[in-house]
Specification:
Strand order of the largest sheet: 2-5-4-3-6-7
Shape: flat
Distance between the termini: 29 Å
Protein name: 3'-5' exonuclease
Helix content: 40-55%
Organism: Nocardiopsis kunsanensis
Oligomer: single chain
Region (Disordered): 1-36, 309-336
Strand content: 5-15%
Order of helices and strands: EEHEEEHEHEHHEHHHHHHHHHHHHHHH
CATH topology of the largest domain: Nucleotidyltransferase, domain 5
Structural class: alpha/beta
Number of domains: 3
Domain HRDC: 234-314
Keywords: Exonuclease, Hydrolase, Nuclease
């Protein structure tokens, strides 16, 4: 039987605050920004010992895309290294020097894509955020976990700054260096807890899954994620959202700025709903008066005019195409049997997650539970359910915990 672990008490905000970590142990290193300095950094890190802590700073909200503008590393025997990936865009030599070395990241799914862009590709991973989730911690941000487990605080005031700025201010660099200062210490503490709770093998499966996940395919109809789109009531206005979104995305990419800095989502939704006929009508919408949006008023008007001339067949459907089950709120009418299966399956997963002390979504993805409930395999025994879960990417530890109970839950729901 898989182990249970004791329920964790919520982390308290009332405890005496831990001391603030202010300075890197060896002082603030110079930023590596030329080939000679990079060669020295590669040699130092390659000759170090143990895992290497890695972090990357992006310019989310300022620049288009999610490229890295600073890469921080720390390893025993090498100290902390700060690399400017704009000046040094190819870190493949570093990747080779660290071949086989475990890389420690916090929330690896966020940083791995931008590290891959600069050819820094880990072969082994320890994800401290994911470890915290598997252990049932309520707050898994780096600052919260460091304070709780290592009894020091990390300053977070520069977490959302424009890291594409050059030169980078010294206090920003100090903040970045401190983010990897004790990441390996956190990793060691979490590994010990995982081993003690019987979850270390689960974590290793999860880390390997994150590391080996294929690149995400471009999202189908990304414009449908425009904030506030639910307020758009007809197909022609939906088409206007689509056309304005793609124009904004093109401009943002050309200018290398965040799309929201070109035109806010709220402006797209309002313009699509109003369908203005003149530039004056458009600029009465407040957000179109911001400097960058006003510069492209003719572009926005052409997009709206284009929509007016579209045939009905060219307009998007209210609900985008999808290969999954319908929205859950429609199940009771469309398939009462599936609704009963879902209720039973969700309760089963929730109970197992409570028993092993982790969020239900880390035990099994909600989408997997929905798909299983909507269209279960013809044979609903443990083996068939396990095969279904495996086909949806569930790991073996997840299948071992849930396949049998879910098979029972589906069978019981069918008797209702």
């Amino acid at each position: 039987m898989n182990p249970k672990t004791e329920s964790r008490e919520p982390e308290s905000d009332d405890e005496e605050r831990a001391p603030l970590l202010r300075e890197p142990r060896e002082g603030l290193p110079e930023v590596t920004a030329d080939p000679d300095a990079l060669s020295d950094a590669v040699a130092a890190l390659g000759s170090g010992s143990g895992p290497v802590a890695v972090d990357a700073e992006r310019a989310s909200g300022y620049r288009y895309g999610q490229r890295a503008y600073l890469v921080q590393l720390r390893r025993e025997g090498a100290g902390t290294v700060l690399i400017d990936p704009i000046a040094c865009p190819d870190l493949s030599a570093l990747s080779s020097a660290l071949e086989g070395t475990e890389v420690v990241l916090h929330a690896a799914h966020q940083d791995l894509p931008c590290l891959t862009e600069v050819h820094l590709c880990p072969e082994r991973l320890f994800d401290t955020e994911l470890a915290g989730r598997l252990l049932g911690y309520h707050r898994v941000g780096l600052g919260s976990m460091v304070e709780r487990l290592l009894h020091v605080r990390l300053a977070k005031e520069h977490s959302a700054v424009d890291w594409s700025q050059r030169p980078l201010p010294e206090d920003w660099l100090r903040y970045a260096a401190l983010d990897v200062e004790i990441l390996v210490d956190l990793r060691d503490r979490l590994e010990a807890e995982l081993a003690e709770s019987g979850k270390l093998s689960w974590a290793l499966e999860e880390f390997a899954s994150v590391l080996n996940a294929p690149p995400k395919e471009p999202r189908r109809d990304p414009w449908r994620r425009t904030s506030g789109i639910h307020r758009v009531r007809n197909q022609r206005s939906l088409a206007a959202v689509r056309e304005l979104w793609y124009e904004r995305d093109r401009i943002a990419q050309e200018r290398d700025v965040s799309p929201g800095r070109v035109l806010p989502d709220a402006a797209i939704v309002e313009a699509a709903s109003a369908m203005p006929r003149t530039a004056a009508d458009l600029t009465r919408i407040r957000q179109f008066g911001i400097k960058l949006a006003r510069r492209y008023v003719p572009t926005w008007m052409r997009a709206v005019s284009r929509v007016r001339g579209m045939e009905q067949s060219e307009l998007p459907r209210p609900n985008g195409p999808g290969d999954g089950p319908p929205p859950v709120n429609r199940w009771a009418d469309r398939s009462p049997e599936a609704a009963r299966r879902l209720e039973s399956a969700r309760a089963t997963v929730a109970q197992i997650a409570e028993d092993v002390v982790m969020p239900a979504e880390n035990l099994l993805l909600p989408d997997t539970v929905r798909r299983l409930s909507w269209a279960p395999p013809e044979e609903t025994g443990t083996e068939a359910v396990g095969a279904f879960l495996r086909s949806r990417g569930a790991r073996e530890w997840q299948i071992g915990l849930t396949a049998g109970p879910l098979a029972t839950a589906l069978e019981d729901a069918g008797k209702g």
